[in-house]
Amino acid sequence: MPVGIFRVCLVVITAIVNHPLLFPKENGTVLENTEEVIQKMKEREESLRLEKLRLEQEIASQEAAQKALEKAAKVVEKIEEEKVPWDMWTALSMVIFLLIELWRQDFQEGNWQETGAEEDDMAVLGKAFKGVAFPDKVILASFYEKRILGTTGDMARMREMVEGFADDLLEALRSVCNRDADMEVEDCMGVGSMYENWRVRKPFVCDLIVPFAPPEPYCFRSQIWCSSDSFPPDEQGYGTIKVCRADEDVTGCICDKTKLGEDMLCLLHSQGNTTRPSSEMEDLLCFKNTQYLDADQVMKWFQIAVTKAWNKISHKYEFDLSFSLLDSPGALKIKFRSGKSIAFNLTPVVQYENSDVYFISHFPRNGLAVDNPSSTHWFLTFAVYERRFIQLISKTLPANACHVSCLQILSFLHGKQCSLTGPSGLTNYHLKTVMLHLLQACPSQDWAPEKLEARLQDMLKFLEKCLHEKKLYHFFIGNGKVPAELGFPIIFQRAEPLNLFRPFVLHRDVYRKTIDTFHEMLRNTSALINEYIPLAHTNGIHKEPV
């Protein structure tokens, strides 16, 4: 018996000492092969078992010469009795191995402190959509007709008015700017929900982007996160813009990248032309002592230029123009003498190479959004391609397809819930991304108008799944199935998918607020819709089967 316990202790001590958790390799993040570990354990156990049998045979042979045959039977019984605790200790060792391995995996993933809370959240999420009282297609059709459809005409009139005024304002801006020193402003473009015809909640806000370029002889040279390893994970989706002379070498000389000694000079560049005066780069809206375009400097310049332009043409209009939000530099508001007002965003952007992808200086504040990494990091917007994709896919769908209707209803429900319980981490852009993924995944005939109820439930279930996994991938980035007709840059299709829900992994409080808001929205769906339809239709509500 003592010999057996000694062997078991030897096995346990050897297993723990040789486990990678206590003595990890230099690269501690590499996971060991579980099957290889189990195989080695089995081989070790087999070798110990053979050694045990050899020792038992030696003992039996010695005792056989000294004891009678009847005592040999007792020895056999004793060996059988010791086999039970031996198997028990072996099984216990295996359990210890498995527990240590599971704990190590949780620790390396950074979730070991939140495991219990996460399991509670997931248990709730898995049942979130079951048992929800959901309106049928008759109720949804009545709600859509009475609450949403009537806003289409208002949006069209507002777009026409805002676009006309913005064109006039930008023309005046060009006339007040110094063409030899100031940025060159191009024509504006409408993007977002107002121009994709799914905006539902008031106040209606038009989003206009204004491309601009530096004066001659300068040009912009950009670098995006997926073309370089210098961008950390929290800067995925961003890029930097360098202001260079048009005749400057694209790759740059090594003297710009290496610190030369005090007694060394570059044979290609003299000290006079490699170092530009700080004031010159600041005039080009660069960050202090760098060549990188500064988003804050750009917005200050743009606000000043817009103010000068408005002062030049204000006498032609019978309304006032002002900047409406301090935290959204491009937010403008037209105030009529009657008291009515119209809001719109006019945001400067920089074109990425020869595509319709743009670096955008600022996004209007929305929900619980996270701030930009720095003012020299510009977020890339694919809004122009998103609008084109919706237009392209709409041509293949049945007449009066329900894809836009689903997005409008979902946007209305979420916006209404946020007005009751406060903002959440979900934005209208997340909801649109859900629709884009389903448009690509579902057959065209599934978007017939009579299938509004089924597709709306699909969007809610898809959103629930994404919240459960904390993963909602950007529609274009890393998507190799983008239609070739769009002419989408291949570099973004080959990039790693970008998780739009990554902030939920990093910010536990934002995730909790978002989950609570989503659950409340599901529970209140019928009540929110019934506010806008006659009571005669309320008997069409049914429960989603459990």
From TrEMBL:
Keywords: Cell membrane, Coiled coil, Glycoprotein, Membrane, Nucleus, Signal, Transmembrane, Transmembrane helix. Residues 1-15 form the signal peptide. InterPro entries: ITPRIP-like, Mab-21_HhH/H2TH-like, MAB21L/cGLR. The keyword Signal applies. It is a single-pass type I membrane protein. Residues 31-82 form a coiled coil. GO terms for cellular component: nuclear outer membrane; plasma membrane. Belongs to the ITPRIP family. This is Inositol 1,4,5-trisphosphate receptor-interacting protein. It comes from Alectura lathami.
